[in-house]
Amino acid sequence: MSPESPEFTTVPVSLGERSYDILIGPGLIARAGEEIARRLKGARAAIVTDENVAGHYLDALMESLKSAGIAATPVIVAPGEKSKGFATLEIVTNAVLAARLERGDAVIALGGGVIGDLAGFVAGIVRRGMNFIQMPTSLLAQVDSSVGGKTGINTAYGKNLVGVFHQPQLVLADTDALDTLSPREFRAGYAEVAKYGLIDQPEFFAWLEANWKQVFAGGSERIDAIAISCRAKAAVVARDERENGDRALLNLGHTFGHALETATGYDSSRLVHGEAVSIGMALAHRFSAHMNLASPDDAARVEAHLKAVGLPVSISGIPGSLPPAEKLMDYIAQDKKVARGALTFILTQGIGQAFIAKDVPFSAVLGFLQGK
Amino acid sequence: MSPESPEFTTVPVSLGERSYDILIGPGLIARAGEEIARRLKGARAAIVTDENVAGHYLDALMESLKSAGIAATPVIVAPGEKSKGFATLEIVTNAVLAARLERGDAVIALGGGVIGDLAGFVAGIVRRGMNFIQMPTSLLAQVDSSVGGKTGINTAYGKNLVGVFHQPQLVLADTDALDTLSPREFRAGYAEVAKYGLIDQPEFFAWLEANWKQVFAGGSERIDAIAISCRAKAAVVARDERENGDRALLNLGHTFGHALETATGYDSSRLVHGEAVSIGMALAHRFSAHMNLASPDDAARVEAHLKAVGLPVSISGIPGSLPPAEKLMDYIAQDKKVARGALTFILTQGIGQAFIAKDVPFSAVLGFLQGK
Ligand SMILES: NC(=O)c1ccc[n+]([C@@H]2O[C@H](COP(=O)([O-])OP(=O)(O)OC[C@H]3O[C@@H](n4cnc5c(N)ncnc54)[C@H](O)[C@@H]3O)[C@@H](O)[C@H]2O)c1
Ligand SMILES: NC(=O)c1ccc[n+]([C@@H]2O[C@H](COP(=O)([O-])OP(=O)(O)OC[C@H]3O[C@@H](n4cnc5c(N)ncnc54)[C@H](O)[C@@H]3O)[C@@H](O)[C@H]2O)c1
Ligand SMILES: [Zn+2]
Ligand SMILES: [Zn+2]
Question: pLDDT (tens digit, 9 = 90+) per residue, B75-129?
């Protein structure tokens, strides 16, 4: 961990004066104080985390910040999606104000995507914008939610409908932290890793097919997979920071996936986000084949890989009863704007050849789902 | 009100791609539909307003939007500063989502500064940023709060500590609407008008000394005074959108003012913001004279004018008992960062010659207040 021989990989996110680095590697929690102090001189901090993550890593982070001279106040919330709501937003906001932090001080998110989205939103609104550090501890957060500046909470009207774009000053992805993540959560995050291959990197997908066991086991393949994922997301974000255009490609598998999450009432015992995305990606590939846009062989290959790592690939794989195709279409229509009976969907011409398909007929999607 | 002969004045706010116009004049509520439809084609809207303002102007605005083909949902909150908090933020946010508005639709703030700050914050966070239209109906909102993109709410830790910068697409200041404003609220807003003269426009201050009665009565002098104020604020905002530098000049009178608002517990029956600013400006000029920075004659002139329009100019003018000077200094210290016993203050070298004074000794301010 000496500064001379950092074992970590740096992925830059290029956003003009809002540019920042993602550091990926082992031991970064212990190194956090040094990395933060170097970038935000004299800053104090609030650490937002959840009970699970606090149990594993809060002491180590407090220690590291203390050695670097950073006074920090921990703010611990309950784990789970319920903490991404107005009630917890107000509590965390008040805790940051109670610590008398100023704009130049930092909110540190130590946890999964729930913590990153919540803490980032708080950092975006306290004093109209404070410094923000992401320390993602779930695989999903390391490869997806901690990069790009989208923050927010859920409401009764849907997920992530309220928030701000607020870029962090630094992302520290400690890959050792993933060792305490449950296998199910690791797999769920892996669905998003595979997604980057399926969007536009067929070689990366092929590499994952060959190396996924090492990625799950840890070591340099894991770091590589996370770095490639972050690079892919960073490139999209740099092109389209506020999601007006091709950032939509990142939604591969997500239209079907969100409908399934709604259909299961966001009950994580039945389905977590990455699992929904896995099924959604399998469906998007099968639907693309069904529409004669891609070969059925590609759909089969995608399914085979997701299955191999233990992810679900079909609606029937979800425990409990599910609504009929018509109802799923209602959820899809709620999620997306339906213009004159047509939908915008991320479809594909093959592995690593995803594209934004406008005007996908509603009836074609319904027919496909009815055929399942 | 025909488009050929607009009776209104246009003040542009130059912020690159976030630039917008402020239209100032009579009849703009009736004209709102047309002006909004022209700028935001196909948009729908939510109108956020308070009970007082709704009683006077909501029907007229709904009518105008309807004629222009803009479907609008009203969201009415209680009048007063209490509506600028998390509870109402959540209610209004949910109402906007319930209306199924998208990013390209608009939140319209119809009301005073409370409504503008609240609705602007909602517009800034729903779907991470929707279109926003300011329709300020108080003098304070027309000359100050509706311009510049600062939005937010209060918390137990202080006023305006939580919010976002979110610029409107258009500001429509209907000067007729001021006719139903209470004389006390009009006077309070006038304190901010006078402030622009005192900051850096001595001729404007002199013009106000000569023409204030016409400004209060309405007509072209009122429009002129509002336009000059908006131009002044727009220029400062264009130089310093995110308040990192000389936007601080706009705080003339506000350091003392905020301390007095805190001391009176934000009880508007005792003191409203503009009155606090009036006393604060008088104190800032007297303190500048006390520090031999400006002539006592200038302080006397400022006081005489504020008194003439009916504004309070001294702490003793506030009804009820007030804490001693030492306690007021505590409030000032809470509001401002106190670095090594020194404060940053807006002081002056004379009428229209305000400047940012760093390192004002705490003890000098205390001594001055004790001498009151
Ligand atoms: N902002 C974005 O761009 C973006 C992108 C994708 C997803 N998201 C959001 O991310 C959230 C999902 O993220 P998530 O899957 O990380 O959920 P999460 O934060 O709920 O974490 C999942 C579970 O793992 C636990 N955990 C996290 N790290 C751990 C560790 N190292 N050891 C042991 N336990 C650990 C958590 O306590 C939690 O119980 C969703 O709310 C989603 O909307 C946001
Ligand atoms: N965002 C900024 O840059 C900024 C700048 C200055 C002040 N502010 C904020 O503005 C707020 C004060 O604004 P305000 O003085 O307009 O307060 P306000 O919105 O409470 O309005 C004052 C009163 O006048 C009533 N009212 C408004 N227009 C009326 C009309 N045309 N006819 C009859 N009644 C009318 C309101 O119902 C209210 O009772 C404070 O919260 C302050 O923090 C913000
Ligand atoms: Zn996802
Ligand atoms: Zn003011």
Answer: 999 999 999 999 999 999 999 999 999 999 999 999 999 999 999 999 999 999 9
Taking the C-alpha atoms of A9, A15, A19 and A25 in order, what is their torsion angle to the nearest 10 degrees? Answer: -20
- Asked if B162 lies within 8 A of A337 by C-beta distance, the reply is no
User: Same topology for domains B9-179 and B183-370, yes or no?
Assistant: no
In Å, how far are A287, B193, B277 from B208, measured between CA atoms?
71, 9, 17
- The best mutation among A77, A185, A186, A311 to test binding of ligand 1, ranked by most ligand atoms within 8 Å of the C-beta, falls on A185
The two tokens of residue B52 are 């007082």
For the B183-370 domain, the top CATH level (class) is mainly alpha
- How far is it, in rounded angstroms, from Cα A108 to Cα A99? 13
How much is the mean pLDDT over chain A?
94
Q: Whose CA is nearest to atom 21 of ligand 1?
A: A112
Q: Is the pLDDT of residue A165 over 80?
A: yes
> What is the assigned CATH class of domain B9-179?
alpha beta
pTM for this model (two decimals): 0.95
Given a cut of 80, whether residue A303 has pLDDT beyond it is yes
Taking residues B260-272, what's their average pLDDT?
A: 92
Q: Is B333 exposed, middle or buried (0-12, 13-18, 19+ CB in 10 A)?
A: middle
Domain locations in chain B as residue ranges: 9-179, 183-370
